[in-house]
Specification:
By secondary structure, the protein is mainly beta. It has 6 helices and 29 strands. A hairpin with a 4-residue loop joins strand 10 and strand 11. It is elongated and about 85 Å long.
């Protein structure tokens, strides 16, 4: 076939099975990975020019988002490469739908959002918590790249998607209920006002990320919270634990938390207690907030190990490899100031004792928990599940039974 976006060369139909395994293929029109259907169009001369069948089949459409006039497919050019979608406010890909009468643009991916119910009334859904009429939509094709304009979390394919053309926003149902003004414990001195439909970048005070989209802002202080962090509300008064500063304990109604634990760099779960330090601007698991500031450890029987934090750059060297697992330590660690021994917090709790053995010339450590790196037994080659022995000098691992009965 000849497509207007690639008029100089014919496109041929390929089967998905012709793809190289694990090599993703993306459609140049919608910029989504080709997962389904089984067939797609590809140019033999321009190897990177690949299109979904659905992206080549429709040139004109009457869409419920703009029922007044038909929308026609139109390629972007160097002069209008900053065209934004009238439904979500985001940059349109290579080809988009356009109404020249109204200057209405629709991302080809958003054209696959269809009202759930009577299309004549679905665009006039009014909710008490949102100031504008909404479309309640469902996803009718294989596209998955839908993101909430408010909290920036991915919208589920099997859930409802709320579309506000005035805000140029795709929203979770819960994000249609965000309050226009809130009082938050992270900024108790002034109220925070919701800024809708804005796509300027800002830095969230809570998670310290550069964010884009909706935001809560203090006009007087220039304080910003992204809506997902704003949904995290304290459940109790300040908690001390072993962290040097008071901590807020938070809960959220969302199904994810936008940042990771600063202590271990692992994902924070909404099912576990989550703590925030407003002075350090860090989020922590409860276990990482309870880490002892100083410990006595089997790997260094002569000295105490001190807890060091990755943002205390003066205390830590640039090269931080764990003595136990030999991996780089991205978060908190324990260090001996005399021996310069470093061990990550997970391995610190895994190693409980060290031994001398007639089988191996060096001291061997007993690991009773999983470590940060995979382990295999030197004798049998099988994976070592805790408990197991390791020589920290040779980096050899042994099953307990293999070493004791060798």
């Amino acid at each position: 076939m000849i497509h207007f976006s690639h008029s100089h060369d014919e496109l041929f139909l390929f089967e998905k099975s012709h793809r190289i395994k694990y090599d993703p293929v993306y459609c140049l029109i919608c910029e989504e990975e080709i997962l389904d259907p089984v067939y797609y169009y590809r140019s033999k001369s321009c190897k990177g020019f690949i299109l979904h069948i659905t992206c080549t089949s429709v040139y004109q459409e009457i869409h419920p988002f703009h029922p007044k006039h038909p929308l026609f497919l139109r390629p972007t050019s160097g002069e209008d490469d900053s065209i934004s979608c009238s439904s979500c406010g985001q940059h349109c890909p290579l080809v988009y739908y356009h109404c020249s009468n109204c200057n209405f643009n629709l991302d080809i991916r958003r054209a696959h959002l269809m009202p759930d119910g009577d299309p004549e009334v679905s665009g006039d859904v009014r909710l008490p918590s949102h100031p504008h009429p909404l479309f309640i939509c469902r996803v009718v094709t294989f596209f998955t790249n839908y993101w909430c304009s408010c909290c920036r979390c991915q919208l589920r394919r099997d859930g409802r998607i709320y579309v506000c053309l005035q805000c140029k926003a795709l929203l979770h149902e819960s994000c249609t209920e965000v309050l226009p003004t809130i009082h938050h414990s992270l900024h108790p001195s002034h109220p925070l006002t919701l800024l809708r439909g804005r796509f300027e970048w800002f830095r969230c005070f809570s998670c310290d990320r550069n964010c884009q989209g909706y935001s809560y802002r203090c006009v007087e202080c220039g304080f910003y919270l992204d809506p997902l962090c704003a949904s995290l509300m304290p459940t109790k008064n300040l908690v001390q634990l072993s962290h040097p500063h008071p901590l807020f304990r938070f809960e959220t109604k969302k199904d994810q938390i936008p940042t990771s634990c600063r202590g271990c760099k692992e994902t924070l779960s909404v099912e576990d207690p989550v703590f925030f330090c407003s002075e350090c601007k860090i989020w922590l698991h409860k276990s990482c907030a309870e880490l002892s500031r100083e410990i006595k450890h089997a790997l260094d029987s002569q000295h105490h190990l001190t807890l060091c934090k990755d943002y205390d750059t003066e205390e830590l060297p640039k090269r931080r490899d764990c003595l136990a697992c030999c991996k780089y330590i991205p978060g908190f660690l324990y260090q001996c100031s005399d021996c310069k021994l470093m061990i990550d917090t997970k391995c610190a709790s895994s190693v409980t004792r060290s031994f001398r053995s007639t089988v191996h010339p060096h001291p061997i450590a007993l690991f009773q928990k999983d470590t940060s790196s995979p382990t295999s037994c030197l004798i049998c080659g099988q994976t070592c599940n805790p408990p197991f022995f390791r020589c920290l000098l040779c980096k050899y691992n042994y099953h307990v039974t293999r070493l004791l009965f060798s």
